[in-house]
Write a structure and sequence with these properties.
The complex is a heterodimer of chains A (421) and B (271). By secondary structure, chain A is an alpha/beta fold. Chain A contains 15 helices and ten strands. Classes of the chains: A alpha/beta (421), B mainly alpha (271).
């Protein structure tokens, strides 16, 4: 059995491609069920955020029967599987390393941004809800979360956060200077957008407006921040009040067209507007950026903007990688112990079964025995089996500590075959 | 004499500013400019006090006065916002004006004509000059803010520049507001200056010579000034368009300033 991962992210593909392959929150459950129905897939997980779409599968045998690209095409309704060059495909230990790094936000657009951990936890919970999580992922993901927590606690990555939110605040300051008179409009209640909005409020923004397709969740979020909510249908009337618009919805079509933005700006008499489009597919038409006094930054732009800060974080990231490697070793050891334990147990169970069966067969022919004799015979057979098994078990345990992964797997398989386990 | 000291002070401020481009030494820069400002004030008072026993070289006095007023604006703005980039634009301008006032070859020292002399004895001509100069100084500050606005807007639109590199540019809205306020202060003063000038021209020559290049360009600058403010009030023109128009307005005003020597009306003071 093998772990497989197919992923597309800002490292591998431009936003247009990620847009096409994004799995909206509403479609996640269906996509997970589709994944569960895939032949050869035992466990699975789908992580679809603004920056990445990743699918993890625990496949039977060496995973050759599973074609995740074809699955993704079906899940996103594309006629043909997308070009392989857009993706990275990982297997085995590389999957674990990748997920550890993703959880610790070392693979993010903005290294160290805290949202991704929550998104991965959500993906895990969703997969659990569909019943697509088994022993393998149950062992892997909590370790990844643990590693992420360690990275955050032990390195400066979280101490000097350079997140999408931070980049958003910087941009707002570039345009407006002081935020104390400014209104933030949040479209969609997605994690990344909410965090960015909260950050702007903490930096002094005066007012929060929230709108969402489900009005109730907009109201709930607005109430939490003493803001106001309005139904999405009123966007055209209400949009002009916003100085900063944060859009992070799962909508397949843009919500703000060039005409809409032009309308806002003329109602605002040209006071500038900053659109932070955190959604993929995009919520704000890219052409809005051409309008005077309108500034549209999508996730790729923010990526470029914050990349300049990465140098400062290089040292922190190096420390984080060290932690990740240590955690990966720990995870690998536990995983091997988990592989070995059932084999050892099976070996002993089998030996015990043989012994009791043989003893039962011979016992009748011996005639009446005193309890002492009975005990001696039990001890004799048991110790024979144990002495016989001693060396193989020692060798297996040694192999776990010393041999390479391939040798170990080969030895385990050999033992299972020899003893018909 | 004192104007030379003032020039040295401004120059020191500029050098310090260039040496510490991004941050630091703000206090030193402000102190240097303020010292220069004081010396310039002393030199102006001295020149005016010596008059009429010593003829005024009006061109120098006016240039010196403009440097003085721009320096005053600079000190005010620097206190409120401390934008390095704005300093980098305005301070060289102060230095150039002060240098022109000191180093430009002296005009003929024959003194003003009797007509001009009578005017100069009348205080209104000083009010005229002062008002127009402050009006122009407002335009200079607005121009500087406009140039920075265009630079900042360009880099935000291009999305290319990393944010850290932009940090030395003031926020867009601040620049826009600064330009607007400078215009708002400058406009009524320039208007009043022009009205006084027109009144005296009418009294002296019997008509306002619209064909005169300085007068024409000043009126044109005033008209653009008016359009700028009006467009902002009526249809919310701001930002880029406003900045471009400010630049045009500044260019026209500058041209008017440069052709002062060609102006028949104004050259009477320069002979």
């Amino acid at each position: 059995m093998t772990l497989l991962l197919l992923g597309i992210s800002h490292h591998s593909a431009p936003i247009d491609e990620r847009e096409r392959l994004a799995i909206p929150p509403a479609g996640l459950e269906a996509a997970l069920r589709l994944l569960a129905a895939e032949p050869g897939v035992r466990e699975g997980l789908i992580l679809s955020t603004c920056n990445r779409v990743e699918v993890v599968a625990h496949a039977e045998d060496n995973g050759s029967a599973v074609d995740l690209r074809h699955w993704l095409a079906r899940a996103t309704g594309l006629p043909a599987p997308p070009d392989a060059s857009l993706f990275y495909q990982l297997r085995g230990n590389e999957v674990a390393r990748h997920l550890f790094r993703v959880a610790a936000s070392l693979d993010s657009v903005v290294v160290g941004e805290p949202q991704i951990l929550g998104q991965l936890k959500y993906a895990y919970a969703q997969a659990q809800a569909v019943g697509l999580v088994g022993a393998e992922l149950d062992a892997l993901l909590p370790r990844a979360f643990h590693a992420a927590k360690r990275v955050r606690a032990e390195t400066g990555i979280a101490a000097h956060p350079v997140s999408v939110s931070q980049a958003a605040v910087d941009l707002a300051r570039q345009i407006f200077g002081n935020l104390s008179q400014k209104t933030v409009l949040l479209i969609g209640t997605g994690a990344m957008g909410s965090i960015a909005a909260r950050y702007l409020l903490r930096q002094g923004a005066a007012r929060l407006l929230v709108t969402n397709r489900t009005f109730a969740s907009a109201q709930a979020l607005a109430a939490k921040h003493h803001g106001d909510a309005f139904p999405l249908e009123q966007l055209r009337e209400q949009g002009e009040h916003a100085d900063v618009v944060i859009a992070c919805t799962g909508s397949p079509h843009p919500l703000i067209s060039k005409a809409d933005a032009g309308h806002f700006l003329s109602r605002r008499r040209g006071r500038p507007m900053l659109f932070l489009d955190l959604a993929v597919p995009r919520d704000v038409e890219p052409s809005v950026h051409q309008l005077e006094n309108a500034f549209v930054y999508n996730v790729d732009d923010l990526d470029r903007v914050v990349r300049s800060n990465l140098a400062e974080r290089a040292q922190e990231a190096v420390d984080a990688e060290v932690i990740i490697e240590a955690e990966l070793r720990l995870y690998a050891e536990r995983r091997q112990a988990r592989d070995l334990a059932p084999t050892l147990a099976a070996l002993q169970t089998r030996a015990e079964a043989l012994r009791t069966a043989e003893w039962a067969r011979v016992r009748g022919r011996l005639g009446p025995l005193t309890p002492d004799q009975e005990q001696a015979a039990e001890a004799l057979t048991r110790s024979l089996m144990q002495k016989w098994l001693h060396q193989p078990m020692v060798q297996l345990k040694l192999a776990q500590l010393e041999a390479g992964a391939a040798d170990r797997d080969a030895l385990l398989q050999l033992v299972r075959r020899l003893f018909d386990l | 004499m004192w104007s030379r000291v003032a020039l040295v002070c401004y120059f020191v401020a500029l050098i310090v500013l260039i040496a510490y481009q991004r941050r630091g030494a703000s206090g030193l820069i402000r102190a240097a400019v303020a010292t220069g400002f004081l010396f310039q004030f002393v030199s102006l008072v001295e020149a005016l006090a010596a008059f009429p026993s010593q003829p005024l070289d009006l061109y120098h006095v006016i240039t010196s006065l403009l440097a003085f007023v721009v320096a005053a604006f600079f000190l005010m703005v620097y206190r409120a916002h401390s934008p390095r980039a704005l300093s980098l634009l305005v301070l060289p301008l102060v230095v150039i004006l002060a240098a022109v006032a000191v180093l430009a070859p002296l005009g003929a020292r024959s003194g003003p004509s009797p007509l001009a002399r009578s005017l100069l004895h009348n205080g209104w001509i000083y009010v005229h000059i002062l008002l127009i100069i402050v009006g122009y100084a407002g335009l200079v500050v607005a121009m500087a803010a406009g140039v920075l606005y265009l630079a900042a807007e360009r880099s935000l639109k291009a999305k290319a520049a990393p944010l850290a590199g932009q940090a030395w540019l003031p926020p867009l809205e601040k620049l826009d507001l600064l330009a607007y306020r400078a215009l708002l202060v400058g406009f009524p003063l320039l208007t009043a200056g022009l009205v006084i000038g027109a009144y005296w021209a009418d009294a002296l020559f019997g008509h306002v010579s619209l064909g005169d290049p300085t007068v024409l360009l000043a009126l044109l600058a005033w008209a653009i000034y008016l359009v700028l403010l009006f467009a902002r009030w009526s249809s919310g023109w701001r930002g880029r368009r406003s900045a471009y128009l400010t630049l045009i307005c500044f260019a026209v005003a500058l041209a008017g300033w440069l052709v002062n020597g060609l102006s028949r009306v104004h050259s009477i003071f320069l002979q």
